[in-house]
Amino acid sequence: MRVERLKLWQDAGHAYLEIYLPDEDDLASGDNGRSGPAVVVCPGGAYLFASEREGKPVALRFAERGYRAFVLHYTTRYRNKDEFVLGLANLAESSEEDEEPVLPRPLFDLARAMLLIREHAKRWRVDPDRIAVCGFSAGGHLAASLGVHWHAERWRDTFRQDGMLLKPNALILGYAPADFAIQDGGDALSASYGRLRELAHRAMFGTAKPTAEQLERENTVRYVSPQTPPTFLWHTADDRIADVSHALMFASALARQRVPFELHVFESGGHGLSLCDESTAQHEGQIRPDCGVWVDLALNWLRKQFAQQNQH
Q1: Is pTM, for the whole model, over 0.85?
Q2: Exposure check for the chain: N or C terminus, fewer CB within 10 A?
Q3: Smallest Cα–Cα separation from 164: which of 223, 225, 227, 103?
Q4: Where along the chain do its domains lie?
Q5: Structure confidence by residue, pLDDT tens digits, 133-185
Q6: Burial of 151 (0-12, 13-18, 19+ CB in 10 A)
């Protein structure tokens, strides 16, 4: 396995793409030089930082199953978790409107990553028609955002490219928020959660109290259309950070638009499970083999979707 890092924008920003590829010898001997499917992993972190638990371990799991794997380190308010912890501690001392919102820069980062992967498809031996985007929590919101907006006019102005080059062939959404108005209206779990939500809102919207219009603009359910890629969703019924209703609403919107989807709701497990095993668990409660089956379920679903798409 070799790992490369590619900066997304040459002029500014800290966003970059981490690339996990088989060694050249493995490529030459293992698949006779054929292109393989790819997955772009978008970690969560409330648009404040990129969760390491939802990045590299997930990419490696997909790489073990024959995927060219990429982790998108998209634009977040803080460069890493240490900076985030410091920001959370100093929240009371900061002004309410202390910086420009992060959104929509992460969406442009993901679109740029899709374009770069297709531009380098031959070198990285990626099948450009079999690229999935897999996102967790805020990264799932980001993945869904590209899924519902890839055909927007804005991309032609920014990239001078056909939107089809930016389109994911499939989405995998793990405990992803879809409508931040629901999250905003929920009861605070604790004082610390309230501070986290306030910091996340400042990062996303530039204010701790976003308007209804700002919240609606980021509502991915609203923009689901027949052009939205096939989607695999998984969630837990007891998630108190991103309520299960997010997944149910997104799935219902897909059903109304006749977009292929598969939805799995596990009875319990909470938020932030990632791979649900020892490799990503922060505590014993996140070791959940009953939920960890999502990986095989998603891989089987992707195999079916890619086969059907190639027939058309």
Answers
A1: yes
A2: C
A3: 227
A4: 2-311
A5: 999 999 999 999 999 999 998 888 888 888 899 999 999 999 999 999 886 44
A6: middle
